[in-house]
Write a structure and sequence with these properties.
4-stranded antiparallel beta sheet; elongated; 646 residues
Length: 646
């Protein structure tokens, strides 16, 4: 590896760490620290080519994540606000900024291009702020998301017309070639979205191989980026399109979960790369102009969005909140700016000033968001705005568009999951299900069951299930490790949620409780109860006696059994209810029934527990597998002799 690259990366990391430590002490936004890191490094490192390449890769993955977070379902729920609100906000901002450009002496095409640059807000920054403030599912959160979705799609159109704004004319002899490329790419994207990508992801999901799934996702991202580059669309926009292709499959939540842990890294690289491009001397020489333009652009963006909210008949308080959130210049604007430089719509000097203004608008977002209550109070003093503190004028469709609340999350769609889902439906309890088997997910979705594909230990999957508003989560994960991870993730996202866990063995109860579960139901214990009810039935006990016995065993939420083994349970059952005893033996390797001396000791095998399954009918042909739990009954002296002889 190039030693210079290692040296430069080491310098970047240690500089970022030092700057962010200082900003953390001062309680200043991390974003500003990353900008400053880039500005400082731009003068400290002579050759930033490799670093810029890495940061461009970071931007590509950042836009890929933004595309992944797009959802046709979410868009459909707020399409009026996305379309009408998005068009109004973009058009108003573009017109007002274009007029400002003309006043500054720019030509009409350059002025219009500047309007486009300013019209697009930062999806990454706004979503981050909304998540931190827990307003993603609020009224302002949903409308803001709708406008952001429209902006992201509108960027594609603006990039396509940028060459025309730069003075390039459509040459008739090249038009057929361009059309063929565009139609061909469109056909490939359509086929990929319709057939290839869902089927490929489905097959990868079936293997349950995380590495395979992740590599396929990266191929889709890079492959789409390469394909779009062939017809002149930038790699950043290609990555966004790749995200869109996956976003409308049932595997988008799990894909996002795999990629999202790197989102902060990509954003950090993005902010540092912007800082790297800043000409510090030019920035300082024009600091007054940059600050003035920043204030004007923030004001124009704010007013354009506020007017949009009023046209949509949103409460003034909501409109103000949305206007503040969308007041900055976004990441797509940098993609556009590079295109503008290519076609002579921006000079290098003006580009540097634009960078400075963009950094200041982005940096102001966290501060302005904190000032929202004060700004609302200031507007409430103006009679014209009629600020409604209780949002009594909330549009009806937004009231009905709320996310599911007070629901149950079921982890796993095995036999127990199906039974619980059926019970929830019968008693009108809202519920959502998550499962890692793509075939089960497809089949259940076809039946109208509210189920998604993914791992419940994945935070993005739990967020899609709206865990922050859930009352209860029932975990029947396939592995013990996955159960503990799911408990941890669920408890962090919703500290008040009631967690019920179904585990295989009694010995795991204490650890699961310590991990954060409220109730633990060991399968081993449930199987013993099931076997016991069969013995009671064998002795001709009536239904009431059996029910009383089982309720007695289940009393106190299994507290009496947390530190005991299945043998202790058997002793309890035997002592209280019958002279026959229940016992069990763990299978160490694959075997058949005749390999165990049950018959010669007058013992009867009553069942076998294997993973999530229980087998009642056990004959001589039945094959025991390693780790099976064999349940059997007999008199104690015979059981003791059995264990002595094996």
């Amino acid at each position: 590896m190039d030693i210079l690259l290692l040296q430069n990366m080491s310098i970047i990391l240690i500089t970022a760490v030092i700057v962010l430590l200082i900003f953390n002490k001062l309680k200043l936004p991390t974003m500003i620290g990353l900008f400053i890191t880039g500005i400082v490094l731009g003068h400290a490192i002579n050759d930033t080519t490799l670093i810029s390449s890495l940061s461009e890769l970071g931007v590509i993955f950042l836009l890929f994540i933004i595309g992944l977070e797009f959802s046709a379902e979410k868009f459909s729920a707020i399409k009026r606000y996305a379309l009408i609100g998005g068009i109004l906000q973009v058009v108003l901002t573009t017109v007002l900024i274009s007029v400002l450009g003309l006043v500054l002496g720019l030509d009409p095409n350059a002025s219009l291009f500047l309007g486009f640059l300013v019209a697009f807000s930062s999806t990454a920054i706004v979503m981050k702020v909304m998540q931190q403030k827990h307003i993603t599912h609020s009224v302002q959160g949903r409308v803001t998301l709708g406008i952001l979705i429209f902006q992201d799609i509108a960027v594609i159109i603006v990039i396509l017309i940028t060459p025309l704004l730069g003075g390039q004319s459509l040459e008739l002899h090249t038009l057929p070639t361009l059309l063929i490329k565009a139609v061909g790419l469109g056909a490939i994207i359509f086929a990929g979205a319709k057939w290839f990508i869902p089927l490929a992801l489905r097959d990868a999901a079936k293997t349950k191989n995380r590495d395979l799934f992740l590599l396929l996702t990266l191929f889709i991202c890079m492959g789409t980026t390469f394909a779009t580059s062939l017809i002149g669309i930038g790699p950043e926009l290609g990555a966004f399109i790749a995200g869109l292709l996956i976003s409308n499959t049932e595997y988008s939540h799990q894909t996002l979960g795999y990629i999202q842990p790197f989102e902060d890294v990509f954003m950090s690289l993005f902010f540092i790369s912007i800082g790297l491009m800043v000409n510090l001397h030019l920035f300082l020489d024009n600091i007054v102009i940059i600050i003035a333009l920043t204030a004007v652009i923030l004001a124009i963006n704010f007013m354009a969005t506020l007017i949009t909210g009023m046209v949509l008949k949103l409460p003034t308080k909501v409109s103000i909140s949305i206007a503040i959130l969308l007041s900055q210049i976004g990441e797509f604007s940098f993609v556009l700016a590079k295109e503008g430089m290519k076609y002579g719509l921006m000079t290098s000097e003006f580009f540097s000033i634009f960078l400075g203004v963009s950094i200041l608008t982005m940096s102001s977002t966290p501060f302005l968001e904190k000032l929202t209550p004060k700004i609302v109070r200031a507007f409430s003093k103006i009679d014209y705005f009629n600020v409604d503190s209780e949002l009594k004028s909330l549009p009806e469709e937004l009231e009905d568009a709320g996310e599911i609340e007070d629901h149950v999350i079921l982890v796993g769609m095995g036999l127990n999951g199906k039974q619980m889902a059926k019970a929830c439906s019968e008693f009108n309890i809202p519920y959502r299900i998550v499962d890692m088997n793509p075939t089960i997910v497809e089949n259940q979705q076809a039946l109208g069951i509210p189920i998604i594909y993914g791992k419940a230990s994945n935070e993005s999957v739990l967020k899609e299930l709206n865990i922050t508003s859930a009352q209860c989560i029932v975990i029947s994960a396939s592995t013990y490790e996955e159960t503990l991870k799911t408990i941890d993730a669920a408890r962090r996202l919703n500290p008040d949620i009631h967690i019920i866990v179904r585990t295989r063995y009694l010995r795991n109860i204490d650890e699961v409780i310590e991990a954060g579960a409220d109730e633990v139901i060991p399968k081993e214990f449930e199987t013993s109860i099931m076997m016991f009810t069969r013995i009671m039935d064998y002795y001709n006990k009536d239904a009431d006696e059996i029910s009383d016995a089982v309720n007695d065993l289940r009393s106190d939420n299994y507290d009496a059994f947390r530190n005991v083994t299945s043998e202790d349970i058997s002793s309890y059952l035997n002592y209280k209810y019958t002279d026959l005893e229940i016992d069990s033996i763990r299978v160490s390797e694959d075997a058949h029934l005749d390999e165990f001396p049950f018959e010669e000791h007058s013992l009867k095998v009553t069942g076998v527990v294997r993973g999530e399954d229980t087998f009642i009918e056990v004959n001589n042909d039945f094959k025991f597998l390693e780790d099976d739990l064999i349940l059997f009954i007999g008199h104690r002296e015979n059981i003791n002799k059995f264990f002595e002889n094996i």
